[in-house]
Design brief:
alpha/beta, 134 residues
């Protein structure tokens, strides 16, 4: 079950939709609480934390452009999948540089593709905010 709090209603609706989409793509059924928060003074867009077996908390910076916010949700949901499948633990990558971590390589590599496929499958790919800026 996905629960989204904070932000505006449309942000919560889209965040719920993409998170559920990613769960379906990965064949997982975790309990995820997504908080859309201000996160002032923080340069990160989001975080994912494993709380208990099958329960996760994701924080996403709510002031991001909508496409970036949803791509960040997809990125953090890749981490949920990694926890669910045992590929990631809270400590197994602690001494590895962020950009060299296998979990980050996968999450950054999949976030945009997951977003694009969600937008296409949801009938939103024609909307201006789903497009990349050149």
């Amino acid at each position: 079950m996905i629960t989204v709090t904070g932000g505006k209603q449309y942000q919560r609706n889209y965040a719920t939709s993409i998170a559920e989409y990613v769960c379906k793509k990965f064949g997982i059924e975790p309990m995820v609480e997504i908080s859309l928060r201000e996160m002032r003074g923080d340069s990160n867009y989001g975080y994912c934390c494993e709380l208990e077996d099958g329960e996760y908390e994701i924080e996403v910076k709510r002031g991001l452009p909508l496409r970036t916010l949803l791509t960040t949700v997809a990125h953090e949901m890749v981490h949920v999948k990694q926890y669910e499948t045992g590929q990631l633990t809270q400590t197994n990558e602690i001494n590895i540089d962020y950009w060299d971590r296998p979990s980050e390589i996968e999450a950054h590599g999949r976030e945009t593709g997951l977003f694009i496929r969600w937008a296409e499958d949801s009938g939103l790919a024609h909307r201006k905010w789903t497009q990349t800026k050149n």
